[in-house]
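Q: I'm a student working through a structural biology exercise. My instructor gave each of us a protein and asked us to get a predicted structure, then write a short paragraph describing it. Mine is Prolyl oligopeptidase family serine peptidase. I'm not confident about reading structure output yet, so if you can add a plain explanation after the tokens, that would really help. Here is the sequence I was given:
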Amino acid sequence: MKRREFAALATLAAWPLDRIEAQVPAADPALFFARPQMTGAAFSPNGKRLAMRSRNKEGRAMLSVLDLETLTPFPLYAAESDDVQSFFWVNNERLAFTLGDLEAPVADQDAAPGLFAVNHDGKNFRQLVERQRAWLKVGGDVRNLQPWNTVPLSADTSTQGAEMWAFRVDAYDGKDYGFMRLLSLNTATGSAREVDAPLHGEHWWFDRGGRLRLAMTRHGNRSALLWRADEGSAWKTLREFDPYVDDGNLAVVGLGVDDRLYVAARQGSDKLSVWTLDPDTGKLSDQPLVRSPQYDVRAELIQREDRVLGLRFAIDGEVTQWVDADMNALQQQIDKVLPRTVNRLSVPRSGAEPWVLIESFSDVQPSVYYLFNRSTRKFTKLGAKRPDLDAKNQASMDIHWIKSRDGRDFPVWVSLPKGSAGKNLPTLVLVHGGPWVKNATWNWDAEVQYLCALGYAVVQPQFRGTQGLGAAWESAARKQWGRAMQDDVADATRWAIAQGIADPKRIAILGASYGGYSTLMGLARDPDLYRCGVAWVAVTDLDLLYGAHWSDTSDAYKRFGMPTLVGDRVKDADMLKANSPIHVAGRIRQPVLLAYGEKDVRVPVEHGRAMRKALADGGNTQVEWLTYPKEGHGWIEASTKADFWARVATFLAKHLA
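A: Happy to help. First, here is the predicted structure for Prolyl oligopeptidase family serine peptidase. I'll explain a few features afterward.
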């Protein structure tokens, strides 16, 4: 690893506010899936400098530091064959960061992220964690590097010292972590000391003095939230729960500098709200700080060193609720200047500097970064995630609430081709993976935008099991793969037809992972709805989820989670078989595009090979088969993305003509 010298960056204030429109045709996948330009920024604690991650002329994500007094950028670090990944300030003078190749497919990823530290002026560069992936080492390490399985947790900028938090994975079976050791790592010397913490810890929280006060543990199917009043006190259990089936009932938001513990909890409601929790009594506050009638609220705590400023969370879009009056007024001012975007404001943790970082984004605009000076009232554009894209040419997305056949309300996102009348369109039902994840929010999405640019309406049903919509909607998905979960997808499709959006004769279903599973089940269960399907890295055999010992699904999840969520392998064997695509393949007569990564350890390629054979045995001669030798569970390499999506475009054009 060596540092490289770079020419000085262009003066930031001279960057044009509107970029030249891309000359690439709108439906070229290379445009939509290109590497981003600027992907993050963070103030030093005192607000005198801003660290920025952006792509250099060689195409690598580099780290630079902007002096906010002169607005002069200094190129701090880049590598020839790696990208800067995570980065954070350790104190006002020093930063830490990790490395990785963001375009390397799974087969070519042969190094850990490591950890490095450097002063803002490029001095005192030090590697802290080695990158060679080896559990056993021969001989001594004269560089005093921590082993590769040491992972950065955060920097404690309240102390202004050289220490940062990290953890070391001391037990790992290739699928699940068994024991993690909490460390305090000195970024100046490279030495580390173990921090006294509960066994089987997975998450840790520290107070403003840098003391460990809260920990989340997991052992088997039991998790616990533990608290101690100070470093000399015994640990007290605040909550215990099953992490596989009821971990959504309480989530830690953070420890406030006001010495209050903020949590998201249901407290007798179907929806998560944000409360304060008294660790001495275990009781929640009388009223929630933030709640939504339709969505769970899992918030991020925003604070300075002297006070809590607000809570940031995502419902259908991102929202910041400020408790600080000055920040609330500032948000309103910024929103008037930038009225059609979500404007995420960040301020330094300490000091009296006037700077505000604004990350501005929407459904048609990837993130654009601005600096705002509260004293001079001037904006400076720092850069953009995708400066080659024009927001005026992107498709907007809207949310609609519909009813399932069993009377439950759930949301469906609809994106329409730019300039279309929104009626009688060829339509793609895009089913998300997971399935227990929070899916779409009001944001720019490369896949959706590309498909809209091809002329399709894109419908994204937030079927039962989708997180963020309440406990009842999540639990309604238990043992419902291919059943009620599939009904929701079909109900959303029929709703789009009834609304006049979808041409009933030109609808395709597509998705990855669970979305690929749903694609195949949709073709089998609802052949009247879908003319064709695209399924990539798709689950095809529910029993194989249990039996594929070479997958990365942990034994604990198979034992404690899947029997409740998906179905018991023995007791529910008939149900699992009846709802596995390979066993209903004979009912699929429509054209199918199947694609897999040969290095996928989440859904091994055996799922696809079994499905391909089952379709052929069932007489389906319209199957297109793709494998990518170096890819895993999803596409990383730029050439893979371009090839796959170009093939999808050709496939859809052929079968939805």
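A: Here are two points you could use in your paragraph. The domain at 395-655 is CATH 3.40.50.1820 (Rossmann fold). The CA atoms of residues 213 and 229 lie 7 Å apart. It's a good idea to check both against the output above yourself.
Q: Great, thank you!
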